[in-house]
Each structure stands twice: as C-alpha cells, then as structure tokens.
Task: structure prediction
Amino acid sequence: MKVAVGADHAGFDLKGEIVSWLQSQGHQVSDVGAHTMDPNDDYPDFALAVADSVLAGNTERGIVVCGSGVGASITANKVKGIRACLCHDSYTARQGVEHDSMNVICIGGRVIGIELTKVVIEAFLGASFIKEERFQRRLNKLIRVEHNELP
Result:
C-alpha cells in the first residue's frame, strides 16, 4: 500500500521506526517530514502534508505522529475529505476504517512505543470500508456535515 507518514519533533523518532518497518513490510512510503529534528517545528505542517498526499491520490492512507496525536488529529480533520482519528489500539484503528472510512491515523509519539504502534498500524492498513447500507448512510451524513449541508 502507498502510505504517507509525517511527524513533528515529538513524533520524529517514532516516525523513523515506522517508516523503516513499513518499508520492510513491502509498503511504499512517502515520508513527508520532518526530515531533521527541529524542536521548533509544528505538527499542523506535517498533518497537512499527509492529508494533501492522501487527497491528491499520491498515497492511499496517511499516518501522522505528534506528541499526543491530538493536535495532528484535529488538524487533519479540518481538511475536507480527510477522516482522521487518534488511535492507540487495534480495534479503533480497524473499526475506524471499516465503519467510518478513516483514511488518516494519528499516533502519539509520547504515548505508545513502536511495538504497539506496529499492531495499530497493521489493523489500520489491513482494514477496508464495509459497504453496508448503514455504514454508507452514516458516511454520507458525515460528508454532508463536512460540506456544511447539515441534516
């Protein structure tokens, strides 16, 4: 799978481990930065770079790592067409894709380590949206809200 990965300084080390691991698993990785450790960089820059890659169709999914994952999630969700969630467990990572068509996962680099991150990302990348009527109906409502077409 083609995956965009980005992180600020707080997720920098974990991002490096994620990128290496994803590549070893046969995924095509687009590392959108940070490429150097800069304690003054800002998570919105990397969340937007990941979101842009997914929206442009350059990658199928995205991963953003910041300190807690919260800021990255908030930022990515401001981008129309992106459905991002902070996930630190495999159930949420899988179900977010299956039920909500999540296309970006956010991870807290100061919250979980690489071994749990691998489990969470495997669940995220291994899942597909379930095209049942109830899930599609809910996704359609979400998209209408995103376009200010409130129910």
Notes: The chain is about 50% helix and 15% strand. The first strand starts at residue 2 and ends at 7. The radius of gyration is 15 Å.
